[in-house]
Amino acid sequence: MALSSPTIKLSNGKEMPLVGFGLWKVTNETCADTVYNAIKTGYRLFDGACDYGNETEAGQGVKRALDEGLVKREDLFIVSKLWNSFHDKEQVKPICKKQLADWGVDYFDLFIIHFPIALKYVAPEVRYPPGFFYEDKKVELSKTSLETTYQAMEELYDEGLIKAIGISNYTGTLLLDVERYARHMPHTLQIEHHPYLVQQDLIDLCKSRNIAVTAYSSFGPQSFLELNLQKAHDAPVLFEHKDIKSIADKHNKTPAQVLLRWATQRGIAVIPKSNNQSRLAQNLDVCSFDLTEEEIKTINAMDRGLRFNNPLNYGVPIPIFA
Q: Where is the site Lowers pKa of active site Tyr (predicted)?
């Protein structure tokens, strides 16, 4: 029997699974099968993005599951993101429609502004996904404001092309700014969140505004090993951290399950990924045990303000978290 995830209710009443599957770094060759297998395992939320370059394949996995009657479209919660190069008002709807066509669906359950950075438009036929650079490793910014982009997102919401509006990588200051101009407040904020980067003040701000928080990179440096940042900062890989291992042993769970439960027990949604079938199931089964208050405090105390997903780490000279 397939597992399932509890849900959290967004401010517009829509139910969002607390545990989803993240499509970042899932290869094009494996993506369709991975999505299909994840649906069979019990995953219902899939977190994709234009920038991941695998939306067509993800859609093929979804189609296979729908065609076989494993799920109906309304059982799934499909998330995608607006890339930085499409922030100009006139580009938001066309690119959203392209992404919907890539997925083979009529609407996104949640559509997210990926980064609070507006880059100069690159047409999909020139390069897709466009990445951070305009050409020759040069970053060129658009003159479009975040307010303009957000209003274009609200139009998608009003038209039913998206069922919820999300933002990602926004700071508290930017979130307070959204509040000044939004007709519909964001339903979710997606942030890097793990024991080395807890961001409790930002989480508390979201809570006070009834904005659901989704954590990405729940395993910290694990997704960024190629950047060697954990070595540069002398930060042990979290799976090997003595405190995490000791808590995992006590509950007879894996370090990954402990890290995910640390988030979900505090009402924060997670989007781990795995190509391994048994880990797929383990990652989904993270609400069947509870950490003690003391264990949560121990994990919170590991906070070092250590951010891995920073454009500067990729050679992109845009210090958005400065």
A: 81
